[in-house]
Amino acid sequence: MKLPRIIATALSALAPLAAFAQSAAATAATETVKTKSLLEELSAPFILPLWICSAVIVYLVIDLYLKTARKQCIRPVAVSTLQQQFRDGAYHEAFAWSAENPSPLANVVNAGLKHSPSGKQAAEDAMAIAIVGENTNYQNRIAYLSVIGVIAPMIGLTGTVIGMIQAFASMGQAGAADPSKLSGAIGHVLHATASGLAVAIPAFIFYYLLRNRVSHIIHDLSIAATDLFRKFPYEHLEHVEFTGGETYAGVPNWLRPQAEHHEEHTAEAHPDDGQAAPAPEPTA
Fold first, then answer.
1. What tens-digit pLDDT sequence spans the chain (284 residues)?
2. Phi, psi of 177 (to 5 degrees)
3. Are the beta carbons of 91 and 181 closer than 8 angstroms?
4. Within a domain: 97
5. Which domain holds residue 110?
6. DSSP labels for 155-218?
7. What is the pTM of this model?
8. Domain count for the chain
9. Are 110 and 99 in contact (CB under 8 A)?
């Protein structure tokens, strides 16, 4: 009789362990199901576009960060080369070098040299336009981050609307006795909304950070270009032409007959202009 009692006592002692094991197994199974459900939610049709937006954000941030570095926009080689050419007065060489080695600083200097024969105001206007062009190139790429920051929550909200539709459809089909379908649809709603916000917030953060970074580098670019053209001898380049800097505006066609008549009258009044003066006769 003692053996059955011993067995019963042992089984009663192992009962809590068995219950704990069953509870642990149930917990593990629940975690497995939750993990699987999360992966399924993150691969839903309305979340896949958000993965693409995330990849685009990473690419744009890295690309813009590298391109807006000071050493990339205002290259030390370009600064030293152009400074030496300006000191030597080798403006044709500086124009050719800046055209062959494009960079933000070289492009601005090239535009200034191209219009320098037209005077200081024309050269400064050309450089200002070139600087605006460089700024526009950067801002256009940064704007994609703003676009992603706007459309990502909308994609998430679209998933939210679809999830709500599915939730109410599940309630109508299963009734109040089966809340599992309703909870699954609500989970879909929450994952879509959270994913949209998780993509939009970093996009806006990097948008403002990079925009400020571009503003600083454009300011430094303006200073570097202006320093090169300090005390520039515009008066000595009035009749100089750079390759690609020719002027195409001529005399208005309604004034051309008067201009031609004036030239003919000048030629008749000074028939000996352009001819070599006769050599003086030698004296005995």
1. 444 454 445 445 434 433 433 343 344 334 433 444 555 555 566 678 889 999 999 999 999 999 999 999 999 999 999 999 999 999 999 999 999 999 999 999 999 999 999 899 999 999 999 999 999 999 999 999 999 999 999 998 888 887 777 777 766 665 554 566 666 667 667 778 888 999 999 999 999 999 999 999 999 999 999 999 999 998 888 877 777 655 666 667 677 666 565 556 565 655 555 444 454 554 54
2. -75, -15
3. no
4. yes
5. 43-233
6. HHHHHHHHHHHHHHHHHHHH-TT-THHHHHHHHHHHHHHHHHHHHHHHHHHHHHHHHHHHHHHH
7. 0.68
8. 1
9. yes
Residue at 177 is within a domain: yes
Which residue, chain included where needed, has tokens 């700024």?
Answer: 135
One-letter amino acid at 185 equals A
Distance CA 173, CA 176 (A): 9
Residue 241 lies in a domain: no
How many whole angstroms separate alpha carbon 207 and alpha carbon 89? 42
Q: Is 138 helix (H, G, I), strand (E, B) or coil?
A: helix
